[in-house]
Amino acid sequence: MSDQHILSAYDRDLESIQALVMKMGGLVEAAILDGAQSLETRDVELAEKVRANDKAIDELELRINEEAARCIALRAPVSKDLRTVLTTLKLAGSLERIGDYAKNMAKRTNVLVEMREIPGPDASLRRMAREVEGMLRDVLDAYIQRDAKLAEQVREHDHDVDQMYNAMFREFLTFMMEDPRNITACMHLHFIAKNIERMGDLVTNMAEQVIYLVTGELPEDSRPKADSTSYISKVD
Asked: Is the pTM of this model over 0.70?
């Protein structure tokens, strides 16, 4: 097989893998928005849809991993080509984790339906989720267009998400101090806010990987974190 045929085959492999990443990204974007909407409207059916659709996200990550492994084995890419494949694997991994956080948001929606409603936070959480979804959409565009400048803009937006989270954290504390009956609901809402903040961190990591893909170097400056809380939550 000639070098040109090998190059063409490799290009086709990459295009196929990139298409899977974009499909996966679209599902994750929908999961973020649907998860936030289900929370705001207490829509249990929509929340269940988010949880069920997470399986498709997981399956796409598995397929991307398999296709990337096959590409490495058959094409033996080096230098920038290898960097492209490895970056794609990292992006898929981040997308899968963001999908898990969206699923977790939907799971907590089912719990919050049974509790007294706290006025205000649902709409704020949805705005925060929409901010993260917009960042994700931009980073996927940056990946396809190999646009390091757009990726850097996404990276800078993480500060805004952190500020939103900090404001909500203070709001939850106020609600809990005003009425102890709010504590359980506020704790669930806080976990959701923290998960959305971590989605923003993952999207920011994706942006840094895109910068590495385009330039061959990770950003030298560590991005400033505006998260001033010390709470730790886990995906459950």
From this structure: yes
**DSSP letters along the chain, please?**
--HHHHHHHHHHHHHHHHHHHHHHHHHHHHHHHHHHHHHHHT-HHHHHHHHHHHHHHHHHHHHHHHHHHHHHHHH---HHHHHHHHHHHHHHHHHHHHHHHHHHHHHHHHHHTTSPPPTTHHHHHHHHHHHHHHHHHHHHHHHHHT-HHHHHHHHHHHHHHHHHHHHHHHHHHHHHHH-GGGHHHHHHHHHHHHHHHHHHHHHHHHHHHHHHHHHSS--SSPPPP-----------
| Structural domains of the chain in order of their starting residue, each with its CATH number | 8-231 (1.20.58.220)
Across all residues in the chain, what is the average pLDDT? 89
- pLDDT per position as a tens digit, 113-148: 888 888 888 889 999 999 999 999 999 999 999 999
